Each structure stands twice: as structure tokens, then as C-alpha cells.
Amino acid sequence: MIYPVVKYGNTVLEKAARPVEKFDEELAKLCQDMFESMYGANGVGLAAPQIGMAKRLAVIDVTVGKNPEAKIVLANPEIIHAEGEQREEEGCLSVPGFRGNVARPQYVTVRAQDATGKTFEMNSEGLLARAFCHEIDHLDGVLFLKHLGLVKRDLIRRRIRKLQKTGQW
Ligand code: NI
Predict the structure, then answer these.
(1) What separation in Å is there between the alpha carbon of 119 and the centre of ligand 1?
(2) CA–CA separation, 18 vs 140, rounded Å?
(3) Any catalytic annotation for residue 88?
(4) What torsion do the CA atoms of 47, 51, 52, 56 make, to the nearest 10 degrees?
(5) What integer is the mean pLDDT of 133-141?
(6) pTM of the prediction?
(7) Rounded distance from Cα 166 to ligand 1 centre (Å)
(8) pLDDT tens for each residue of 67-119
(9) Which of 90, 81, 77, 71 is nearest to 147 (CA)?
(10) Is there a contact between 52 and 90 (Cβ–Cβ < 8 Å)?
(11) Which of 48, 62, 67, 112 could in theory staple to 74 by disulfide, Cβ–Cβ 3.0 to 4.6 A?
């Protein structure tokens, strides 16, 4: 099942999500659906709040489906180490049509549970490190807009408000 992605303006995107507690069939199916929804939207990451569910759950695939081994499920993730800095353009499926430069650590180590509840740790760098930070931000109710400079952020917000007023958002 492909879920529609909720957009900026929906309050579910601005709330901290609740921990995943049950690792059952239903969760496995949800993860599958989240991958499908992410691929359908051409994204490299999708967090549960983006489909309207306030759960600490995200899926990532920086190869966008090209390598099945690149699929990562993050349940209850936390960043346990971060180092260095990278500055790249970033976007978000919940803020379609807008991008901005965001500073993120170049190296990130994440601790999380997989879809079965097993705890793992993973080192990352570059795009994957950026995806980890971006998706974990979502679970804390933070969008990439928050990391932009004030002027750029206000500009995007004003443009979105205009789109909202004319029913185009
Ligand atoms: Ni996003």
C-alpha cells in the first residue's frame, strides 16, 4: 500500500513521535508499505510522521531501490556519535519543491532496532549520514527548514503560505 505523504503545515510533522513498542507482523507490513511509499515518491528516506503516524520509525535507501541490501529500517533510532561537517542542499518529501543548504555531520553512528526489534549500530558518512540526521529529526518533530538561515526559511514559509491560500499545497 502506498501512503500519501503529508506536507508541511500538518501538525503531525511538528510533534515528537512515540517509541515503537510492538515488533509484530503489522510493523513488518508498515515498513514494507513505507519503502513502497518512499520509492513511489522518489525519496531516499521516509519517517512515519510523514504518513501521519507519530511513531519513532523511519526507512532509508540512499540507492532509491537500486540495491536491495541498502534498505534500512530504523525503529527508535538515536545518534550515538557524530563527527565532522558537510554542507549540501537538502530537500524533504513533506516540503516538495523547496531545497536549502543544511550543515550536517559528515560521520554519524546510529543505534536503532530493525523491523524485528533487534538492536544494531551502523556507521555512515556523506549522504547516508545526512539521511540519518534528517529522518531522526522528523521523529523529533523537526523539519530541515529549521536548519536554514532565517531569511531563507522565511522566504520558503511565505511561498508555502501563498500556495496554501490558493489551494495548491
Ligand atoms: Ni524529510
Answers:
(1) 24
(2) 9
(3) no
(4) -20
(5) 98
(6) 0.97
(7) 24
(8) 999 999 999 999 999 999 999 999 999 999 999 999 999 999 999 999 999 99
(9) 90
(10) no
(11) 112
